Automatic annotation (TrEMBL):
PANTHER family tied to this protein: PECTATE LYASE SUPERFAMILY PROTEIN DOMAIN-CONTAINING PROTEIN-RELATED, POLYGALACTURONASE QRT3
Protein name listed in UniProt: Rhamnogalacturonase A/B/Epimerase-like pectate lyase domain-containing protein
Species for this entry: Tricholomella constricta
Domain Rhamnogalacturonase A/B/Epimerase-like pectate lyase: 65-189, 267-334, 534-779, 901-966
One Pfam family from the record: Pect-lyase_RHGA_epim
Keyword line: Signal
InterPro entries attached to this UniProt entry: Pectin_lyas_fold, Pectin_lyase_fold/virulence, QRT3-like, RHGA/B-epi-like_pectate_lyase
A single GO molecular function term of this UniProt record: polygalacturonase activity
Keyword Signal (UniProt): yes
Signal peptide coordinates: 1-22
Origin superkingdom: Eukaryota
Length: 1275
């Protein structure tokens, strides 16, 4: 408490009142000094005290104001008043005595009238206490000659016998690296010999009678120069605008107003005028009336309490407010819940208003959740010539952590299990608008990180979007603290004339999980700093000259912005910090791994792919590491391998040839990833020296993904891989010389010791592999369950496939080969002992060959084969001109100029996750389809009705831009509506979609996320397709299908309906879907990234197309993952599914109802699980690799041991013509059913963790006698 002379206080107060004008109230008689005589008591002593502690267990009986004389103190300078004073402080079971860390429900003002109080032991200042003396005649606390204790007033006593423990928790400062930083500014010395010295007498800066303008000791930085300059001398002196200075040229300061010269008659109590302050009653109308009536006429006294307001309160110019022990105004209710439409709780002056405003001893806050609350909007400008005429003293914005806020440990524990929705404290704490001025002294703008009640230490997870935003032209004086807000603590935009000292901040303890701006969205109206998705590595200092070590600059480009990585246990995944890290052409020297963070695309120049060149002294696991091992972590890694989603690397040459050949550090890529990941257009250059240890890709485990258009030159291993499931394809395209000296057509291995070492898997599919002059093509170790290879050419290689052990009469690893050409390959299939299961030769064609159990039609008896197997009829529409399965490169438009692209954000779309972008997006497609390539800048684009993509559309996302359907249009499963319609029915033309995500904001039980009607033009295979584009439902920030709304096992399914149908390929369509994942989330991707959730999508992929169709992966939908009805000419490889974890509770089709219009399969009382694959009345369906998994029953994995989590997983009617190669299932009692009857039993095909069938085929009823098998081996 500052104690000043009466004359000084009176002078300031009288000066202030002379400038009261422009009152925005009904006041007609401006406030005067009153008639308080010099001998009258200070107003605080005589005003009626009606304050209460709103959330105290006995609010009516608890006394906030205490006069020490009422507790026996005499103040006569003779009587020992220690016990009486301490009794005044402690009365009412308050927080102190060493047993309570903190409490907001026992506030107190302890008042000392004028006098002299003899003190013989410390006055113990309890928590949440104001000790206030008479401001007119400040009392004296006189230590007795026998005084015993640390201090006359002790705010944090040491507990006797407590071993150094104290009453309260003390936050200690951390040590820095410097010996001490000193800044001296405008210091006038008068006969001071030494200005700065050291112990021992050495002089650092001489003194005398002088003025030190600006001097410093420590590290000095200037502008963008990152190099520190240690200085011990003159430093740059800031320009101090005159508006910030007093008449003597010093920084202006204004004493805390105490109104000592005013009579009590000049004060008005809010409680005497209808306000309750009980923390429950809505006091909005009462407070508005009080401000309207008394601002400028009276000093408004807020009796102690918590005043709830449900709409904006405006404090007019002319207002003087005094609180009692930090009286609270709290915004509560629906007005403050929507961050898309933020509303002000306390508005200080209307926009552009001017006048006196003084606010002392108050707290402004919210009752949560309040995601849309702007707690204080400060508009008022001080009167002309009246510095500091608009300000706050000892007034704070405190968000959460206190009783009554609903933002405490019970609702929002530090684990984050409270979710985001219920734990929003504010949109913005304090906004200084452009025309305002402000004097803020001792202000604390705090988002609570722990409870202030209870044990006073429990950490909590709350979310306040922004701390202090100033757009003021000044003058502004800020002396205080802002802590724990999400986007920023202080943000100054177009601001001028600010003095800030001392400011102090703390970042939120939970970041980067989630990382900013989550769980808020960026709002440009409030000048939010933007998160940069696109990063050019050269903007971060990379040179690309092949000489400079660019490792640090590249990793900075990847990691900047508080992204999800670094090995922090707090972040296993995040969808809110995407990044596209771009490498211009050049050679980038790398000495340690490039760490590829979660949700990152590393993209090189597609015209001139850059080289990542490992230095000769390279140290680390690989040039690019997608999941580093944490040093000293006992095998722990940055991310969980099986949920390491959303990665892409494309257009690079990765060259490790400078690394000594014998060192395994010569590895190009550590790629331990899962779904929605891709490697495209990469060349690996490795040493071909004898004994080389180099390898291109090392993948020890993971769960899925896509690779295409890769070349491996040299090395011990091209690919050393182990994974649950993976698909690798080559893409047939015209020869385009874009990789410097390489022509790219196939996934090619040249001069590698072993092209592919497959360490373990449940299922791998290789399509279009070229192996030239290697020692071994495929080395399949004991842990390999199933491998399928289609369209391979092998030249000058002794062994095409080598397995760890011979398989002669029973299943020991499944192998399926289709359309293989061998040239000068002595052994086609052999084992490690040299035995041959299939000989090779100078020229051998393997049309269809397999090893493993083979089934046909409804015959439940499998036959082990090691020889020719059923060759599927491959319709010509699925093949390229060479007879191989067709593939098309990921379009990158490298031959197009930037003029051929148009940005959706340049044409009105916002992509901010809240604005309805429907009209803007549809206008874009209508205007530019077939004319421009439409670029979707990174963001989430909300649409509230169907968007139609016309023929001719080419669209490109940026780090998986999102289009999400939201609202009533998608709310009725009885009337499902399309979110994204690709072409009208029976339309024909080019559609190319790359790097996008289609989704919903829940609940959306009537959403058909993508309806695919478009058909490729004649003669243009694959012209209608999607690449690296996914349908992702729930689990991600902004979907409202997250942990807070849909926790594991939630019984209310309505809020958790994500979609009616994910993808519908209609009758006349064709589709090329590469690297596409159709996923209903089983866990959250933000927060800690692992908590399971219960959400529901009715159907995965429904295809009624007659083809051609090429497609991949879908998971967790209720009725089915794949459903083919009247479909033809489909190539599906590798398909992978997971059944919903909650089934059979509820049992399929619940919580959806069957809809015959969408060809739903029927379910009986015993059919309670989703079908992974359901086929009816379809023909020429080729599945080349399938991993169909059932891991749970109602979230329990007890069923895995018995391998019967569900009874059936595939159902194919007897009319359909289907070939399934390399089928792996987990925990389904029957692997294949026909017409709903189980045929192939899982127990007959156990092959490690999975059960494997090499081939199952059906010719349909029209072809009696079973399949015709034709296999030709030509030499």
């Amino acid at each position: 408490m500052h104690l000043h002379s009466l004359s000084l206080v009176l002078g300031i107060i009288l000066s202030a009142v002379s400038f009261v004008f422009g009152l925005g109230t009904s006041c007609t008689s401006p406030l005067g000094a009153g008639t308080a005589a010099a001998g009258d008591p200070y107003w605080l002593e005589t005003i009626k005290h009606q304050g209460l502690a709103a959330y105290n267990s006995n609010p009516g009986g608890y006394q906030v104001f205490r006069n020490v004389k009422n507790f026996g103190a005499k103040g006569d300078g003779v009587t020992d008043d220690t016990a009486a004073i301490n009794a005044a402080i402690t009365a009412g079971n308050r927080c102190g005595g060493g047993s309570c860390h903190s409490s907001t429900i026992t506030p107190a003002i302890v008042y000392f009238p004028r006098g002299t109080y003899l003190v013989s032991a410390p006055i113990i200042a309890y928590y949440y206490t104001q000790l206030i003396g008479d401001a007119k005649a400040p009392p004296t606390l006189l230590a007795a000659s026998s005084f015993n204790g640390i201090a006359v007033i002790d705010a944090d006593p040491y507990i006797p016998g407590g071993g150094g423990a104290q009453y309260y928790t003390n936050q200690n400062n951390f040590n820095g690296k410097l010996a001490g930083s000193i800044v001296i500014n405008n210091a006038k010395l008068n006969n001071v010999p030494t200005a700065v010295g050291v112990v021992g007498g050495a002089v650092v800066l001489a003194g005398g009678t002088t003025t030190i303008s600006s001097w410093g000791q420590g590290n000095v930085y200037t502008g963008t120069n990152s190099a520190a300059r240690f200085t011990q001398g003159s430093i740059h002196a800031a320009n101090k605008p005159s508006v910030l200075l007093d008449s003597s040229g010093k920084i202006f300061g204004k004493t805390h107003p105490q109104y000592a010269a005013y009579a009590v008659s000049q004060f008005v109590s809010v409680k005497d005028n209808g306000a309750k302050g009980d923390g429950r009653t809505d006091d909005t109308l009462a407070l508005k009336a009080i401000f309207s009536k008394f601002a400028g006429c009276k000093i408004i006294f807020f009796d102690a309490g918590t005043y709830i307001v449900s709409s904006t309160i405006t404090i007019p110019a002319g207002t003087q407010i005094v609180g009692e022990a930090w009286s609270v105004i709290a915004g509560s209710g629906s007005a403050f819940k929507d961050q898309a439409s933020p509303q002000v709780v306390v508005k200080v002056g209307d926009t552009n208003s001017q006048g006196l405003v003084e606010i002392t001893d108050m707290l402004f806050t919210t009752v949560g959740p309040a995601a849309g609350a702007i707690v204080v909007e400060w508009n008022v400008k001080q009167p002309a010539g009246q510095n500091g005429g608009a300000g706050m003293w000892d007034t704070h914005i405190r968000l959460g952590g206190a009783a009554g806020t609903n933002l405490e440990a019970s609702q929002c524990p530090s684990s984050g299990s409270g979710g985001f929705t219920n734990c929003f404290a504010a949109f913005l704490a304090l906004h200084l608008t452009p025309a305002s001025t402000a004097y803020l002294e001792g202000a604390w703008v705090w988002l609570a990180d722990h409870d202030l009640d209870g044990d006073g230490s429990s950490q909590i997870s709350l979310y306040s979007g922004r701390g202090i935003l100033s757009e003021s032209a000044g003058p502004v004086w800020m002396i205080g603290t802002a802590e724990h807000h999400v986007l920023y603590q202080y943000s100054l935009v177009n601001a001028r004339n600010h003095y800030m000292g001392l400011i102090q901040t703390e970042s939120p303890y939970y970041q980067p999980n989630p990382a900013p701006p989550a769980p808020f969205t960026v709002n440009s109206a409030f000048k939010d700093p933007t998160f940069s998705v696109f990063r050019n590595v050269k903007d971060f200092g990379a040179k690309g000259d092949g000489i400079t070590d660019d490792t640090e600059a590249i990793n900075l480009a990847i990691s900047s912005g508080g992204r999800c990585g670094g090995g922090s246990s707090a972040c296993n995944s995040s969808t809110i910090t995407p990044a596209l890290v771009y490498f211009p052409k050049g050679v980038y020297l790398i000495s340690t791994p490039i760490i590829a963070y979660y949700y990152t695309q590393l993209v090189g120049d597609a015209k001139f792919p850059p080289t990542l060149l490992a230095s000769a002294n390279f140290e680390g696991l690989a040039v690019i590491d997608a999941n580093p091992y944490i040093p000293g972590g006992g095998g722990a890694q940055f991310y969980t391998a099986t949920t390491n989603f959303f990665r892409s690397v494309r257009n690079f040459v990765i060259d490790v040839r400078r690394v000594p050949a014998e060192r395994s550090q010569g590895t190009g890529l550590h790629w331990q990833v899962a779904q929605a990941t891709s490697l495209v257009n990469l060349v690996f250059e490795m040493s071909a020296a004898p004994g080389t240890a180099h390898q291109g890709i090392w993948m020890e485990n993971g769960s899925g993904g896509y690779m295409g258009d890769l070349v491996f030159n040299g090395g011990k291993f091209g690919m050393w891989v182990g994974n649950q499931q993976y698909v690798i394809t080559t893409l047939d395209a015209p020869s385009i010389d874009i990789l410097h000296r390489f022509t790219v057509r196939n996934v090619t291995f040249n001069n590698v010791d072993t092209a592919v070492l497959n360490h373990w898997n449940w299922g791998w599919s290789f399509q279009g592999v070229m192996i030239n002059n290697c020692k071994v093509g495929f080395d399949l170790l004991q842990g390999v369950s199933a491998v399928a290879i289609v369209d391979a050419v092998v030249r000058d290689t002794p062994v095409f496939i080598r397995s760890a052990a011979a398989s002669r009469a029973s299943l020991s690893g499944s192998l399926a080969l289709s359309n293989i050409l061998l040239k000068d390959v002595p052994t086609a299939v052999g084992d490690a002992n040299g035995a041959s299961a299939l000989p090779g030769g100078a020229h051998v064609v393997i049309e269809s060959w397999g090893q493993g159990n083979v089934y046909s039609g409804t015959d439940p008896t499998g036959e082990f084969k090691q020889g020719p197997i059923a060759a599927a009829h491959k319709p010509s529409v699925l093949l390229d001109s060479a007879g191989r399965i067709f593939g098309k490169k990921h379009p990158q438009y490298e031959d197009y100029s930037v003029r051929e692209f148009v940005s959706v954000k340049d044409h009105g779309a916002r992509g901010d996750g809240s604005t309805d972008d429907t009209r803007a997006i549809q206008t874009m497609f209508n205007k530019f389809a077939g004319r421009k390539i439409i670029f979707f800048n990174a963001g989430t684009y909300i649409v509230t009705s169907t968007i139609t993509l016309p023929p001719g559309t080419r669209m490109v996302g940026e780090a998986w831009s999102v289009i999400a359907g939201k609202g009533n249009a998608f709310a009725d499963q009885e009337n499902p509506q399309v979110v994204i319609r690709v072409g009208e029915k029976h339309s024909r033309g080019v559609v190319e979609i790359t790097d996008m995500i289609f989704s919903t904001v829940g609940p959306a039980p009537g959403a058909i996320v993508v309806e695919w009607n478009i058909r490729e033009p004649n003669g243009h295979q694959g012209a209608a397709g999607m690449w690296n584009t996914h349908i992702r439902l729930g689990g991600a920030a902004g979907t409202e299908l997250e942990l807070a709304n849909c926790p594991l096992g939630a019984t209310d399914t309505e809020p958790c309906m994500a979609a009616f149908l994910a993808l519908h390929l209609t009758h006349g369509s064709s589709a090329y879907l590469e690297g596409t994942w159709v996923w209903l989330a089983d866990h959250i991707l933000d927060g800690q990234g692992s908590s399971q959730i219960s959400i529901y999508s009715g159907r995965g992929i429904l295809s009624e197309s007659e083809g051609p169709v090429w497609m991949l992966v879908t998971e967790h939908h209720v009725l089915y993952q794949y459903r083919l009805v009247h479909a033809k000419n489909h190539y599906m490889g590798l398909i992978q599914t997971e059944s919903p974890y909650w089934q059979p509770s509820p049992a399929a089709p619940e919580p959806f109802s069957l809809d015959s219009a969408y060809k739903d399969p029927m379910f009986s009382e015993t059919d309670t699980f989703s079908w992974a694959l359901s086929i009816e009345l379809s023909k020429d369906i080729i599945v080349f690799g399938a991993g169909l998994y059932s891991f749970f029953q109602n979230y329990s994995q007890a069923c895995l041991d018995a391998r019967n989590c569900q009874p059936q997983i595939i159902d194919i009617d007897s009319e359909s013509v289907v070939h399934i190669y390399s089928l792996s299932t987990v925990a389904s009692a029957f692997q294949v059913s026909v017409d709903g009857v189980g045929i192939v039993e899982e127990s007959d095909n156990v092959n490690g963790f999975a059960s494997t069938v090499t081939v199952w085929s059906s010719s349909g009823k029209s072809r009696h006698g079973g399949d015709q098998v034709h296999a030709e081996i030509g030499i």
